[in-house]
Design goal:
- There is one protein chain.
- By secondary structure, the protein is an alpha/beta fold.
- It contains 8 helices and 11 strands.
- Helix content is 39%, strand content 20%.
- It is globular.
Length: 215
Amino acid sequence: MDLTARALLLDMDGTLVDSGAVVMRVWGRWAAAHGLSPERVEEVVHGRQGHESMAILLPGRPTAENVADNARMLAEETADLDGIVPIPGAPAFLAALAGVPHALVTSADVALSTGRMGAAGLALPEVRITAEDVSASKPDPEGFLKGAAELGFAPEDCVVFEDSAAGVAAGLAAGMRVVGVGAATAAYGATVTVDTLEQVAVLPRPDGSVTLRIG
């Protein structure tokens, strides 16, 4: 399958960077402290900002407590880079985007995204939309719409790469096509899915757009 795009919007965790071990170390401790199972926490946390995950997991808890807790946990996650590796195919995929308009759109903040991309040996895109830039996290489309605007393209000209249910929903809500990274994304409604980024070829076109060859 081929998709044509003028700009790409890339999630980080689970899409470019495998941070699963760190996420579950930090959130596993939080889950135990609040009497929640790790499995329940894992169902919710991927793709969202931490304080919004907490609001789902602990309904009725004061927002101020969630925000404070999230700040502490972000610091823990930023300091813990053990086991951070690139998703298979991510280094070559990013290298193929040289000259192609693209942006990182992540629910992580600047410090965490910088640390994890560096630990995975991946170059940071010049344009980044992080937690500091949005008022609502995925599945709200705000981040992807801001990324498209920063790059100067309409939503319909953009293709999103995502791995989480919240992220896929955000991309679709933004009016964009979504390449789901990981087999589970088929159930989330992604436009097309790949097992890894090794299945994506980036082919520049004479008019400045790119063909994404999937398969």
